[in-house]
Amino acid sequence: MIKDGWEAVIGMEIHAQLATATKIFCSCAVQTGGEPNANTCPVCLGLPGALPVLNRRVVDLAARAALSLGLQIHETSIFARKNYFYPDLPKGYQISQYDKPFSSNGSLTILTSERDDQGRAVEWKPMTIRLERMHLEEDAGKNVHEGLPDVDKYSYVDLNRAGTPLGEIVTAPDFRTSWQAYDYVNHIRRVLQWVGASDADMEKGNLRCEANVSVRKIGETGFRNKAELKNLNSVRFMQKAIEFEIERQIDAHEKGEAVNQETRLWDEKNQITRVMRSKEDAHDYRYFPEPDLQPLTVTNEFIESVKCSIPELPHAMRDRFIDVYGLSFSDASQLVNDKGRAEYFETTARRTLNPKMSANWVLGELTRELNNSGKTTAESLVTAEDLAELIKTLEAGKINNSQAKEVFIEMFNTGSSVARVIEDKAFEQVSDPGAIEKIVDEIIAANEAQTAAYRAGNEKLFGFFVGQVMKASQGKANPKIVNEILKSKL
Ligand code: ZN
Ligand code: MN
Questions:
Q1: Contacts for 387-390 with beta carbons within 8 Å, 24 or more apart?
Q2: Do residues 81 and 290 lie in contact, with contact meaning Cβ atoms separated by under 8 Å?
Q3: Is residue 377 within 8 Å of 370, Cβ to Cβ?
Q4: Ligand number with the minimum distance to the CA of 141
Q5: pTM
Q6: Burial of residue 224 (number of CB atoms within 10 Å: 0-12, 13-18, 19+)
Q7: Cys staple from 239: which of 67, 126, 182, 312, with CB 3.0 to 4.6 Å?
Q8: Residue 43 Cα, ligand 2 centroid: separation in angstroms?
Q9: Which CATH code of 3.10.450.50, 1.10.10.410, 3.80.30.20, 3.30.160.670 fits the domain covering 433-489?
């Protein structure tokens, strides 16, 4: 909650690793883990005389990302050197893009909501975000610090990551709350994963985000000094860091203390942000065009061909699930959180012609078993077709709901068919009215006192009779038919 009279101004920068097999300007493998400095060559080590060559696959994936985020791709973009010294940057500059980026001028509609005390969304509303640009650049290496402070402390440089392709996505300062930024980053992650442009996994570091946060009095049009928040290892940490920073700055302004333009880190242990360094201004980097690379040109045909290969995007699919299948917003949103699961649902729903029940099973039983086993929908031994078969069997009254759940787990663990598991477990329901009627007659005859009491008006006893019949049938009687017959006989 932001203090009355104040508002936050937040802009986001996301570095997304494009999911190529090799680096952006050389053919070294992009790999995490492995021997330090094993995946390096004269180009990514920055040895004198080595020349970069642009990886074509980077352009394909960048185009997928740009188009699915509503960005305009420029026919010509220029690589530029961003000069700075740091041990993990062997050339002394990063090859990036500056005044002629790969894409710019995007407009993206996301859904966002504030959260209540329990972290639940209050009300989802659409919000349009201006994307200033997505440019291409290479990643730096990694400095690794080991040992105890002051004792046996060593620092190493690992250049396996140097030259990994990145798309840097920069927004206008359009966010006013931490939850808007949170929903934005999740939107970007999901879209990039969905179209296969990036694994977008923050824990693995292949999606990193920075938030530029400042505050101002409502009504002010200029900007006050901003802090750039880094070291945000999860979307939730980022949200908390922004929230802390908004309060810290408002507090400082109200006390008349200086708010400096600086880079701050999130300290999860202490739940605060701390100063990392005062911020360099853009001109410190002495950008100039990279003389070793040609301008990057893309044709209209190329852009059109990429457009055609982009699948239906998650928000479009969510809206279609609501319109076509009558799902709730919440169910549809949850289904499209994962592309594999969304497709699995659709296959199931088309076969069962019961979308609501299909959604319940996919979001309930299937999701639980997938989470427990760490499997993806593609690895599930129960295919969408199998689940549809199970749902149809349940709907036909051959088994009851709790049996269906048991059958599902057995199928999930063993890969058996519905029919096979039902047979093995002898689950087939008794739906033959004659057989059930016989049991009902026996139960009524054996419980004279209860029968008399029920007929005298004690309707609560109905449950007792149902229980007795189910017990006598060893749980196999179809409960619907049991109810009908009991009602007519009593
Ligand atoms: Zn290399
Ligand atoms: Mn960057």
A1: 387/344, 387/348, 387/358, 387/361, 387/362, 388/347, 388/348, 388/351, 388/352, 388/358, 389/351, 389/417, 389/418, 390/361, 390/418
A2: yes
A3: yes
A4: 1
A5: 0.82
A6: middle
A7: 182
A8: 19
A9: 1.10.10.410
Q: Which ligand is nearest to the CA of 282?
A: 2
Residue type, 337: N
Distances (CA, A) of 79 to 99, 102, 208, 360, 486: 9, 9, 21, 50, 80
**44 C-alpha to ligand 1 centroid (Å):** 4
280-299: pLDDT as tens digits = 555 588 999 999 999 999 99
| Tokens 């002394």, located at residue | 92
Burial class (CB in 10 A: 0-12, 13-18, 19+), 88: middle
Give per-residue pLDDT as tens, 300-359: 999 999 999 999 999 999 999 999 999 999 899 999 988 999 999 999 999 999 999 999
Q: How many CB atoms lie within 10 A of CB 424?
A: 12
* Domain definitions of the chain by residue range: 6-301, 312-425, 433-489
Q: Give the closest ligand to the alpha carbon of residue 55.
A: 1
Other Cβ atoms within 10 Å of 437 Cβ, number: 16
Mean pLDDT over 102-115 rounds to 95
The three-state secondary structure class of 171 is: strand
User: Using CB atoms within 10 A of its CB, is residue 406 exposed (0-12), middle (13-18) or buried (19+)?
Assistant: middle
Return d(Cα 428, Cα 425) in angstroms, integer. 8
Q: Is 73 helix (H, G, I), strand (E, B) or coil?
A: strand
| Ligand lying closest to the C-alpha of residue 80 | 2
